Amino acid sequence: MEIAGALLRDAQATPSALMRKIYLCPALRRPEVADHLADLSRLLEGLRTVQESNDRARGVESGESEVFHIHLFDFLHNLVRLKLITRLSGDIWRLFLDLRGRFSFITSDKQWADYRDGMLKDKNIKS
């Protein structure tokens, strides 16, 4: 968490770039992650806060912000499907539900996969 904060403060990385690194990290989809959900939740919430602050400063949500939210939700959705995050997981479960509300127009895993893949393809971002 401290490293991510330092990278953001020094403008060496954007929240979206850090979220992409988290999203692409297979080690963060292992059962051991369940032992670190509180720290992971703080990190993800912090990145989200900075991303949303950047959007407010610009006065508009950017395409980078949409990709950020897609990566964040898909990452959490995978942890839910792996049963590493449940209703009893506290803050990270609330973050997942809040993001689920953002994508409430999607009603199935198939629709989510189609939307995610289409949006990431449209943004020329490989996941």
Textual characterization of the structure:
This protein is mainly α. It contains six helices and no strands. It has helices at 2-9, 15-24, 37-58, 63-81, 91-102, 109-122. The protein is globular. The chain starts with a helix and ends in a 5-residue tail after the last helix.
Q: Which short descriptors sum up this protein?
A:
single chain; 127 residues; mainly alpha; 6 helices; 67% helix
Q: What's the arrangement of secondary structure elements?
A:
Elements: H1 2-9, H2 15-24, H3 37-58, H4 63-81, H5 91-102, H6 109-122
Helix pairs in contact: 2-3, 2-4, 3-4, 4-5
- Taking the alpha carbons of the first and last residues, their distance comes to 22 Å
Low-pLDDT ranges? none
Q: The biggest beta sheet, please?
A: none
**Which structural category fits the helices and strands?**
mainly alpha
Cα-atom Rg, whole angstroms? Answer: 14 Å
Average predicted local confidence, pLDDT: 86
Total DSSP E strands: 0
Report the order of strands and helices. Answer: HHHHHH
% residues in beta strands: under 5%
What fraction, in percent, of the residue positions are helical? 55-70%
Concise summary:
By secondary structure, the chain is mostly helical.
